[in-house]
What does this fold into?
Amino acid sequence: MIYLVRKSVLGSGDELQDLDFDVNSLTLGSGDDCSVNLDQLFEAVISIKAINENTAKYECNENISLIVDGSESKKGKLIKGKTYQLGVYDIEIINTPAGFDFAINIIQSKRKSIHPKKRFHIDSKKSKFSVRKISYLLFFLILLIFLIVPYLGFQDKKISQTLDNFHLPDDSLWSSGPMAMAHRIPEIGDDCQVCHLKPFEKVQDKQCLDCHKNLGDHVSNIHPATDKFSEFLCENCHKEHNEPTHLTRTDNKLCIDCHKEIESYSGGSLENNKVQSVTGYTKIDHPDFRLSLIVPELINGSYEWKKSRPMFNQSNLPKEESNLKFSHTVHLDKEMVQDKISGEPLVCKNCHQLKSDEEHFVPITMDKDCRSCHQLTFDVYNPDLELPHGNLRAATVMLQAHFIREFTDPILRKNRSSKKIRRIPGKHTNEADCSGTGLDCGRVEALKEAEYQFSNSGCVTCHEVTDYENGDLLSRWDVKPIKINEDWYSKATFDHVSHLSVKGQNEQQICLSCHNVKLSDTSADIAMPQTDKCLECHAQNEQQSVELTCTRCHQFHFIKDDGE
Amino acid sequence: MVPNMFQSILKYKKYRYLKLSLLSVLASYILYLSQGSSQPANGGTLQGYILGIFATFLVLLLASLGIRKRKYSSNLGKLQGWTSAHIYLGTSLLLIASFHAAFQVGWNIHTLAYVLLLAVIFSGFYGLYTYLHYPRVLSINNTGGTQNTWLEEMGEVDDKIKAQASSCQIEMRLFVLSALKNTILSGNFYPQLRGKDLSKIREQSNKKLIPNKNQQRIIDAIATAIPQSMNQAESGALNQLLTLFSRRQRLLKIIRRNLQVRAYLKVWLMFHIPLTVALMAALIVHILVVFIYW
It folds into this structure.
C-alpha cells in the first residue's frame, strides 16, 4: 500500500515535506525504526493502517493517546474531515493524490511538547511491583500454608499422611511448643490428634487415661466432694507444650484454693479424723501432722492390723503398738552394744537402710538386722543349732524333738554327758544328763528351755509373750505378732537423702536431730519429727527459710486402693 | 516533607503517646512477671491471654492508621496525633508482643506472627528514619526549587535544544535528537531508587546506542564540533547547544537525585504494608489454631 505523508519541516511550520511509503502500515514516532520520524513524540509511537482513502485504523503505544473532539483514545479509526491531536502534532486525512492509496497531513502545532513528567513517567502509578498485589499474595499464601493445607490434613488422615510423606506443611506448624520429653513416645509421635480429637475442644481426660491407667484419684469415690472434681480436666493442671517443660502444677494455689476452706468440700465436718484446712506452711496456717499408725486388734483369736491417723503434737503423743520390745538407748550406747565385726558403736544405718525411693526404709527383720547378735541358740551342748524364727509351733516342736533325741539316742546321750561345759554362776545352762528315760529327760529339758526362752531370755527379750501356765509345751505360750510401721506419714513424701547434708554434722547426728531416740527405752516411743521441726527450716515468709510448696510433701494423685 | 513536621509528631502534645506507650509497657511487664506460679510464662496463661488480646488490639489500632490516612475528613483525631500514636505504640508493641510470647520461638505459625510483627516494626523504624532524615536531603538538593520547576525547565531546555539543533548539520542534528530521545529518567520505582543514569545516545556512524551518562557524550561531541563548524550560524547554534546541554546535565542530576530520595521515602512502605497484611493473616491463623488445638 502506498502512503503519502505531508509533514511540516522541523522549525518551520509553513514548509511542507512530502514523503511516500510503500508499507502495510505507517508508524509515526521519534525512533529510526519508525517510518515517519516525528522528533517531538519521543517514546510515543502510533501505527496507522489505511482501510480506504477516507478511513484508517490507528493504535497508540502506552506513551500517547490520540485526542479528537476533546476525548482521548489509544486505538480507533481516523476519519477524513477530522483533526486528531498527537502530542504537539495535528493529523488529518487529506485527498489522496493519484498514485497513492492513502494520504495524511502532519502539522506541528504551537502546543508545547510532552511534559517531561509524562515523558519520563515520573509519578507513574504503573509498576510491575505492586504493593497491593504483594500484600494480597502474602495474605493468601499464609492462609494457605499455615491454615488451609494443615486443616485439610487435620480433617482427613489420608491427606495428613500425604502431607507428611512429601514434607508439606501440616498441623505441626500449629504446635505452640515442644512436647514434654515424657510424651515423646512412638505411640504419640508427631500425631497431634492422639490428644487433640476435636477442633475447638480441650484435650479430654480419656486421652490421658488411655495411657495413665493406674493413676489414682485425689479423693475416693465416697468422698462427699466427688462431684466438685467433675468439672476439672487433667488439662487444667497438666499443661503440655510449655517451655521450659512444666507438665505438673506445683504452686500452692493448686492445693490452697480448695483446702483453705476444706469444710465446704467435706460436708462441713471437721471431726478429728477429717482433713483440716490449710492456707500455707506456718505454725498457724498448717495443721499439726497426723501420724499413720498400724494398731493390732484381736479379732476371733487372731490379730489384724488396723490403720489409725491420730494427731501428733506435744499434747497428744500416741504410742506405737508394734509388739516389739526394743530399746534404742541400749543399742546406741557404745559401752553396751558394738558392731560385731568392726567393734564400733552402732549407728542408725546399721539397721535402717534407705530404700531406693529415698524416703522409706527397708523393713527391719530378725534375720537381716538382729540375728547376728541375737542368735536363737537354745542348747549349750549344741551351740550351732538355732530355733526357727517367726513360727512359735515350729520352735517348740523343735525344742522338744531336739532334747528327746539328745536323751534317747544312746550315742548322743553318751556324748552329751561326757562334754565338759563350764557353768557360769547365775547363768542358765542346759542339763548334761538326767536319771529318767530318754523321753522323759528330753521332755523335761525341752520344757525347762522353753520356760527360759519365754520367761527369762531369748524370745521374750524382743517379744510380748503370754504364759497360759497350762503345762503343755505346745500351747502354753503365745507370742504376739510384730509389725513395724513403715510409713509414718502416709499422706506426705520426704526425701531423706537431700536432708542428710548439714554443715558441721555427720549423718548420725543429722538422723538424731529429727529422730531423737537416744533416750527411747521402748519401741512404743514414736520418734517422728512434728510440724515444728520442719518449720525450723521450711516456714513460709521467713528469711533464710527454704520455702516449700505443698507438692514438695504432698501428692495430688493418691495411688489406687489406698483405702482412704 | 518538612523535617519539623516529623519532629513535632514525636513531641506531639508533650510526648502524650510516648508516655502512654511507656505505661503500656510497664503494665505489660508487671503482668508478664506475675506469671510463673502455676506454669511458666507463656501465651497460654491468663496473663498471656490478656497480653495477647492487648497486643492484637494494638496491631489493629495501628493498622487502622493506614485507613485513617486516607480519610482526611474523619473526625477521629488529628492525623498528626494518629501518626505519633502509631510510632510510639508500635514501638511498645515490640515488648508487649515479646512478653505475650514470653520470648519463646519455634518453627510454627505463632513465631511467624511474632517475626512478622518484628519485621513490620523494624521496617517502621526505617520509615521513621527516612522521614526524619531525607526531607532535609531533598531540601538541600532542590536549592530553593521544586521537582516541578526543574521538570518545567527541562521541557523548555529540550524545546530550545530542538530548535537550535535544526541549524546544525544533519548528523549533529540527529545525534542531538538521539540524546534527547534516549535520555532515561525512568518513572519506575526501582531505577529511581538506584539513581543510576542509564541514558544512551545513538552513534550516527554505526547506528548503535552507546552510553551517554550525565549527557557527557553529547557534550563532548558538541565541544569537539564547535571548532570544526563551517559557518557562524552553525557555530552559534553549537555554542548554544553546549550551554543548553550543560544546563540539562545539571537539571537531570537534580531531578534524578530528587527521584531517588523520594524513592527512599517510599521504599520502606513497600515492606511495611505487605508485611502488615501478612501479619494480619498470620495473626488470624495464630489465634484460630490456638483454639483449634486448645
